[in-house]
Amino acid sequence: MELLFKPRDPKYIGEGNLPFGGFNDTAKWEPITKYLEKGAEMFPEKTMFRVADSEGKITGDYSYEETNNWANRIANSLIKDFGINKGDKVAIYMLNRAEYVVSIIATHKTGAVQVPVNKDEKGERLAYVINYSETKALVVDQESLPFIEEIAKDLTNLKVIFTVGNSEDIPSDIAGIKTLPFTTFENYSSDNPGVEVTTQDVERCMFTSGTTGMPKGVSRNHGGVVLTVRGYIQQSGVRSEDILMSVLTLGHANAQVMALFTAIGAGATAVFYPRFSASSFWRWAAECGATHVNMLGAVAEYVWAAEPSEWDDKHNVRMVLSGPAPRNLEEFQRRFNTRVIDGYGSTEMGMVLWKDAEDHRPGSSGYTMEGYYVELRDPENTSEVMRPFWDPSENPTPPDEAKGLLFIKPLIPHTTLNEYFKDERRTREAFDDDGFFNSDDLFAAGIDGRFYFQGRYSRIRVSGENVDPIAVQDVAMQYGAIQEAITVGIRLPNVSDDEIKLNLTIKKGENFDPVEFSKWMAEISPVFMIPRFIEVYPEGFPVTSTQKIRVAEIKEISDNTWDRNTTDLKFRSR
Description:
- The chain has 14 helices and 30 strands.
- The chain is globular and about 70 Å long.
């Protein structure tokens, strides 16, 4: 398929060029590591990526040649001495650092499948991801090692653990699993391994929220990387002299595809921070020379709420991709002297909608990207396609009858969901007979051709994470005092993300303390799954005359609702 690279207003285009073109001819696409190898030959000394420590100080600077050679040594080692073959799984579980970057690239070069594990997973869920993915090799940092030690006896397929850190502090094995320092890779060949990998091969198995309490593995091919990279380059005007900064974890597609892989595809530079700090965000951006940054969920609100500082407009950030865009868009752009564009994507589908930088109409997620066809369908009857009738220029608030579920049809093979790993039923149900994927997200389509995000249909979005309410309920039901649990998402005013409200009934004769429950849940679940609001219903959940739960009622905040934010209870993600 031949795609059309949209022109941009010059003020939204970076300095430099696109050394590998605009990726318009899909027949010529190659896995992203091939462009890294070309970059290592064409501009070997150019900085490929930098990494910072938790205080925001840049601690490493790696050229295209260094990055490629380092990844080659790892790949050659994995192939030669650790039996990693094409299609095998290599998991990575750590905070953002240089070794994370090169481990992703090295895995690509072996033809293996990367399994980026959410840095906040722990306990049973962490063991599930490693086991279910059939991971053979695991890369961790020393900070993550205690979480692995807790579950090591339950790991069934894992053959070797590579640990980043002081070699003297790394054990030789963990519960019988061979454990080696990351420096093991240093003495291997820096030549390209030469494994034949194409855009049709599987690139990742990324785990997202599950419907039975455990995450599900989303399998995507290398072609999906190139499609999203192409879209980001086009929409954001990325060029070779740009610097793409990310404070998001490399365990997510955003930091990988729209920072690391886009930097490679444009011959640009990426900078990674291991954590987000609202108060330091713009100072870090200025210090690293960032021209592009990405924000997810409520990040934009946190940045806006931070105390004004001299760094607010003393930076070179030309473009911010924020999903969703800040509600106070115009004020945000003026205060921080930048341009914000919105978009919509998912782990399964990639970036489906994207706003044009020249489009200043607020509120929309933009237009359908090349490579996709989308339509809205009636949530009560998904066989019925809805025709746009709402005019956003006359009424900024869409009527309820204009809101529908977004269904997405991929038009380019090997660019979207390949399968839900080892789940034929879910994979089969993901697409209808015409090849459309149900996004489970509500949109309104204007007669202006734009799509306007209205909220999640059944999922909850917390701190940029998709959270399945059933998964939260399943965890809560393990707590001894709880009889029944129902999870709902609540959207507070002027906040882009949801908050979790857990509604409970308690077993007869049992006592329930929300503080103790929250501490218990924090021990076994990621921070984003811990509910902010908890309400106990002593007389049972409110129901209709037909005994259906009054969902609207349990989504309300009442005088009986406990709010974690009114306590001193604080939980931080790693």
